[in-house]
Design goal:
This protein is about 35% helix and about 25% strand. The chain is an alpha/beta fold and about 575 residues long. It has a 7-stranded mixed β-sheet with strand order 12-25-26-27-23-24-13. It starts with a helix and ends with a strand. The mean pLDDT is about 95. Bound molecules: glutamic acid (GLU). The site of glutamic acid has 7 residues, from loops. Glutamic acid binds next to loops.
């Protein structure tokens, strides 16, 4: 087995050296091996030392010798070098990744995941895949007021959909005793005190850089008060544990922040009897240490939290993770705030968490956006510190690349009118299910000249061509169109600049509602579409849509993805 790893390291070291025409870099070589051989990720500790040896061996070889060996041992790796770059490898390297990484995704179960979460989830996942190691899902449910019991399951489903490589799952609500223990230790170190001041009063003192009287309590006094907190002797808001930071710190947010508080109601769904809960900065710092987190990638909105959390690391003399903070990301056109979503669902403005006006992952999944497209779009955005706007265009372009080769083609006629094409012979149209894959076969549409057309597309026209069928001459009598058969020649249609439009036989069609963000479009589609529930299809000339359901009365519900 060792020789296998060694062999892999050797050929990737050769590839790296040939690519850059210099001595191979061991971090990059390890990254390439683990990236291409995920089964080795759990053995990252063996890989490190071996890599050092192998890299040294390749380092002393001459350039032509490296190329010759690579050609001989792994010609595919040599030819990879002349291919266009795989963009998903483009993110900057992290520091301190020797020996692999331990990273985490730490959502609050207050609702399902949305595109904002996807950025954190995917960037952290990306680096765990790149460097090997563990990816911890940490459910941050220490605020009973912000826990939606249904969200536990939704978050789990969303993570599965995203395809994150989670290796460990922890629930903070299972760890309350751990936080209590470390809180006690922090008090013993003099790093925290129990404050029983009125919150408003404390805030005004803090803004004046003044200590409150509780700050002068002895460790024993604090320990006693802490015990009384745990014993339920204080009500909500009457006692809090504060981390002793620096009252003169220029940023008031850093001054003696709260680490533990009391919440009497509501009861926590997973810790019914608990009344003392850690605040985020305390539980995050304790867990990042205890779970061995090496790198944290999170948004700029956490910069102040990073500052607060460092105090805890300093008190305990722990080595903090390496932090990266990416810029803000505006996402236009969809609702992202969990509370507005919840309120809108309650009042009936939205149909549910997957309503297509929401930016939840389940809403975009319902429209046929693929998780791989979300991943590509997020990796493209990367972790730059500059604030940016999420590009729906890029997400759609990535999605199209994935679904275009798969999606069967069908006709959907929105806002239809039924017309008779005078003089049309009975005709059997054979339209390809997919123009790029003839083997999939054809849809056969038989018409006797009575057809359904999209009214908007014939408006004011003298000729149209019905796709895969024939040309139709249109004369207008006031606002009334008269249609007549005009032969099959494509050149005639081209000469007259006739648009090629979709159509349906009047006697072989099923009703279809296309749900779009701008409203529902009623129309008809081919009967075969009813067999595509769960799949994405392309409605020709309209765009891609996911077929969501067929109702009991035989109507197709389709959700529009993009053009
Ligand atoms: N639970 C926190 C959040 O969702 C994340 C904490 C962190 O990344 O440090 O904002």
């Amino acid at each position: 087995m060792t020789t296998d790893i060694e062999h892999l390291l050797f050929i990737y070291a050769l590839q790296n050296a040939v690519k850059h025409d210099s001595a191979p870099k061991s971090g990059a070589v390890i990254g390439a091996v683990l990236g291409n051989h995920p089964e080795l990720r759990s053995r990252v500790r063996e890989v490190g030392p071996l890599a050092g040896r192998v890299v040294a061996e390749v380092a002393v070889m001459a350039g032509p010798e490296r190329r010759r060996l690579l050609e001989e041992l792994a010609p595919e790796l040599l030819s990879e070098l002349s291919q266009p770059r795989d963009r998903s490898r483009d993110l900057p390297a992290l520091e301190g990744v020797e020996g692999g990484v331990v990273m985490r995704f730490a959502p609050n179960p207050s609702g399902p995941l949305h595109l904002g979460h996807a950025r954190a989830a995917i960037l952290n996942d990306y680096y765990v895949r790149r460097y090997g190691g563990r990816y911890v899902l940490r459910i941050e449910d220490t605020d009973p007021r912000r826990v939606d019991p249904a969200a536990y399951e939704m978050v789990r489903e969303d993570i599965e959909w995203l395809g994150l490589g989670i290796t460990d799952v922890v629930y903070q609500s299972d760890r309350l005793e751990i936080y209590y223990d470390w809180c006690q230790k922090l008090i013993e170190l003099g790093g925290a005190y129990v404050c029983v001041c009125d919150a408003e009063w404390f805030r005004s003192l803090k803004l004046e850089k003044q200590a409150c009287p509780c700050r002068d309590q002895t460790v024993d006094e604090n320990l006693e008060l802490w015990q009384r907190m745990l014993d339920g002797e204080f009500y909500e808001g009457h006692a809090t544990v504060r981390v002793r930071t620096d009252l003169t710190h220029p940023d008031p947010a850093m001054r003696d922040y709260s680490a533990m508080r009391i919440v009497n109601t509501p009861a926590h769904p997973r810790a019914l009897d608990a009344t003392v809960f850690p605040l985020m900065n305390f539980s995050v710092a304790i867990d990042d240490h205890l779970l061995g987190i090496t790198h944290v990638i999170r948004g700029k909105d956490h910069i102040a939290n990073t500052g607060r959390q460092r105090y805890i690391f300093n008190y305990f003399r722990w080595k903090p993770p390496i932090y990266y903070h990416y810029g803000r990301m505006g996402i236009s056109g969809v609702v992202l705030s969990t509370s507005s979503m919840r309120e809108g669902i309650r009042s009936g403005v939205y149909t549910g968490w997957d309503d297509l006006h929401l930016g939840t992952l389940r809403a975009i999944a319902r429209r046929g956006i693929q998780p791989e497209a979300v991943r590509e779009a997020v990796v493209d955005i990367g972790m730059g510190e500059t604030d940016i706007t999420f590009s729906w265009e890029n997400l759609y372009a990535q999605n199209k690349e994935i679904i275009d080769p798969k999606a069967n083609r069908y006709f959907f006629v929105p806002d239809p009118i039924e017309v008779v094409v005078e003089g049309a012979p009975v005709h059997e149209a054979r339209a390809l299910l997919h123009p790029g894959d003839l083997a999939r076969g054809v849809r056969t549409l038989i018409t006797d000249g009575r057809v359904l057309l999209p009214e908007a597309d014939i408006e004011g026209r003298g000729m149209v061509r019905l796709k895969d069928l024939y040309n139709v001459r249109i004369t207008w009598d006031g606002g009334i169109p008269h249609l007549s058969y005009a032969g099959e020649a494509l050149e005639d249609a081209r000469r007259e600049r006739a648009p090629i439009i979709q159509w349906l036989p009047a006697n072989a069609k099923i009703p279809c509602t296309l749900h779009t963000q701008d409203g529902d479009v009623e129309g008809f589609c081919e009967p075969l579409v009813a067999g595509e529930v769960g799949s994405v299809v392309q409605f020709e000339r309209v765009g891609f849509a996911r077929i969501d359901a067929v109702t009991d009365d035989g109507r197709v519900d389709a959700f529009f993805a993009h053009r």
